[in-house]
Here is the input.
Amino acid sequence: EYLIATREGKSEEEINEIVGEYGQRPLYRMLGYFSLICLLRVHVLLGDFTLALKVMENVELSQKAPLTRVTACHVSTYYHVGVCYVALRRYPDAARIFATILNFILRMRRYHTRSYQYDQISKTADRMYALSALCAALAPGAGARPDEHVQASVRERFGEQTARMARGGPDSLPAFEELFVYACPKFISANAPPYDDPSALAAYAADPPAEPVQRHLALFLSDVRSQSSAPTLRSFLKLYASLDAARLAGFLDADEEEIVQQMMVLK
Here is the structure.
């Protein structure tokens, strides 16, 4: 309520009336604020990315937000929001979020190299570079111009995988899989084994469900496969100012209707 009232520009007296006695105390206000960020992480780990973003809709992501007072919290928040965007196929939004926080990390490294949080922040930053590589491969040129510093760091860390992903086709899938498994959170399952039903428990033990990470990986790779023809189409379309679908289908030895479908995927 405090965040909503603040964003609506209400006066201090109106805010105090809305939030009540406890909401006026800084301790309770900060506990509520940072509990929203913890809830974001829980929903991401459970795989409910839409609800995770819904939780954060009143939390401002800027350099003036209270979450920036704790550097590890600042970095973790941007990482989990970016993961949500990747999972929801909002790759330009994810790339923008990652570029913002990665540039912040580059600036703060000169001051925090001896911080107890530094090792964890560095590991999270490496994961975000991997996710940035995925976003660049799946939505090249989409949205704003890619950040040069981030792209240079991505090429330095994951140059081989980036080149394989840019070529597209079936040979690129292992590179997508490698980066996704490396960069994704440690997803968890909310469903416990059926301990109260011996027959169901025996069936569960004989054929256990897929690990949460593998389920999310399968969903991600299905999207990657649907876009596997995009790099080839993009390379052909760059050669012509105008080109009809029939002629393009002739170049690629494919059916015209199939080419139209692939062009819609590319779009």
